[in-house]
Amino acid sequence: MAEAWLGNLTEAVADLGSNGVPGLPSIKTKKLVVRNSDLIWAEKNVIRMVSMAQLKGGCSNSSNPIKTLQIPNLNFDIHSLALNHTKKLLAVSGTHQVLVIVLPRPGYANLVSPTLDSRSILIGQYYHALPGSSQLAKVDWHPWSSSAASLLVLTRDSLLREYDVSLDSDEPQQSLSFTQHSAMPGSLSTPLSNHRSRGFSADDDRDDECVSFHLGCSSSDWGALTLYALMRNGDVYALCPFLPTHALVPINYIQNLRGVTEAKLLDPAHEDNGIVEARLNQQMRWLNAMAKQMHSLDGSATSFKCSSPRATGSILRQGPYLVQPPPSDDDEEADASDILAIRPSQLPMDVFVVVYTNGRVDVCLATDNVEGRWSSRAELAAQPPVMSTYETIQLVNGADVGYPSLERDPVYEDTVYISHSSGVHALVLKPWLDELAQTECITRDSKLIQVVQTGERDNAQSNPVVALDIVNDAFLGYFLLALTANLQLLPLALSLRVEETSGEGVEEKEHKKGAEGADHTSEHLKHYSSLLDAAHPIDLDAAHSIDLTRGLDGGHTRDAIAITPQTLRYLGGVVSNVRRHTHALTASANSVQDRLSLQIRESARQIDRLAHVAQVATNPSNQAGVGSGKGGRVHAVSLDQLALLARMDRLLQRLMDRHQPTLSVHETKWFEELARIRDEVGGSGGGKNGDAKGRALQARMSRLNHQLNILRPQVEAYQLGQAAKLTPSSAIGASQIAKVEGVLHEE
């Protein structure tokens, strides 16, 4: 159940929305993001934000907590919002324009004005805003940018451009292509082997149109340096290694990757494979060039600034992935919409989730992990990477779901949320991932749950979901926010998983409790135990069939039947067999009758127990000395729980108000000044420049001390000589005293 403040937030957002009936979006959208405790959403060409922490705490100084950002350059309809990793910059994209906004500081909620002035920068106007330019497919930030300002812009013509907003917003730092043209880096000029990834024909023009991309996230191999791209026809490509022009890379990652690659290169198994050996040599050259950029680091650094080495050549476009088994012919007509690659802790490989416009979701396993590869003649003979389709799931049967989007759960890596025109589905991979961790055979499927439904199934597209985000905050809680096209905000509280013991132990404990009965436990503590045991059902057909296959000698079958010892023995055996099975059938009938009597007794016990439970639930007194009974007590406990939760929220809000988790601007500047003085005087930090300044200051101080030591004896001797010359009878004039003081001052 949503809390009261979420209801107020929903009403405030809905009041600003339009009353018209929205249509099905013609492009993939994401019009809502969450920055810590701030909710930011877009409507047409307007961006608004509200502090959910202020709204929940009820301590906002403004009558209208929702603020509207005043952005002069924003004159286009917004389709997507992307927040960088420092949560200070917001990328806003439309159909052909990209804009970066500097978000206001967290104290904006205390301002009285309903509008906030924000600075903005237009990105790549020459490449995206001119008539005839390709439509934007996706805009996202790279997490390893040294300035947190590396913006990746993908267009439908399969061109990926990287803009460093802090340096140049007009020209891209680098450009890559996911199509196979020799003029673009990252591809081979000679075609690869004609493996068809999904069985499409050669005249399918959708294989040159890119719809989405995703950055890898694995820290144990080349996954963090991999860029996956999804084509409109469902083909998946990979570029590795990919880094921003000005990157900030963890030191341990490069060192570990270098050690693993060196171990593979020394493995004798790769000596006979020339392609693998040449690939490993290129990887070692690239990693060694990266390691050379670490020489100017101090011992406490965890990351280093670098740029991707260019000496190894242009990056090879890997793919398209060969999917096994391929999809059916009916599924080939649908367009791909979004892709998500995750690396669960239970698997040493990537799991791809690909969603299509017809509601189909493919869950695939990457059989071959992506490695760093560059264009070379040796790579012409290499086989394309392979992914195995684990399962195919249908979201909504017989309905177009628009352009669905994928969102990963921030708490559980095995949960993916799918937003589409019919609502939101949760795809949980945990069942078969846990089974895979325990055994090599997988029999379970993923669990698909519809958590949000925007309307009736026949009319679900009247209010499609245009954005989805998950909030995980210590003060706000753990919940999902879905935004519909008419600005209806749908909050859904999510539950955290509770670690349970193994199922076998629980079943054994329950079985023991049922066997012990009332002799070992009191009546109000023990669980209800059934009279029916776990006996196997009686199989009358298999256990009590009469075997009459044994007959007389085949040589005498045509003769007249005569009473012989053999005939008598045969008849005696048949009679004995029939008598034995008759007794067994009688015993089985008795067992069935006993079982039926036991089931009647068990049914009567269950009816009595249900009547007792109903009496306990409806009895006001309940033999407890209270007038409201257990129902009233449960209601009182629930009210106390709500009061305790509200009190805990107020206490947490007061603690957050009194405690400042980050330094203020003046404190930060003061500590920076202290660090600068320390580096200049002591030379203990700042790298080589700091050491050089420190040594220069120390040398100057030593030189001044030496000059002072030389001048001090001369001054003392002069003062003694002047004191000896002065007698009580001799008087010194004012002019002489002035000359002496001048000389002393000069010394």
TrEMBL record:
**Sequence segments annotated as region (Disordered):** 180-201, 502-523
Residue stretches of biased makeup (Polar residues): 180-194
Listed GO MF terms:
structural constituent of nuclear pore
| Bias kind Basic and acidic residues: ranges | 506-523
Localization of this protein = Nucleus, Nuclear pore complex
Q: Which GO terms describe its biological process?
A: mRNA export from nucleus; protein import into nucleus; ribosomal large subunit export from nucleus; ribosomal small subunit export from nucleus
Any one cellular component term from GO for this entry?
A: nuclear pore
Q: Write down the InterPro entries for this protein, in alphabetical order.
A: Nucleoporin_Nup88, NUP88/NUP82
Q: Does the keyword RNA-binding apply?
A: no
Instruction: Kindly state which keywords UniProt assigns to this record, in alphabetical order.
Output: mRNA transport, Nuclear pore complex, Nucleus, Protein transport, Translocation, Transport
* Top-level taxonomic group: Eukaryota
Matching entries from PANTHER family are given as: NUCLEAR PORE COMPLEX PROTEIN NUP88, NUCLEOPORIN NUP84-RELATED
The name on file for this protein is Nucleoporin nup82
Protein source organism:
Wallemia ichthyophaga
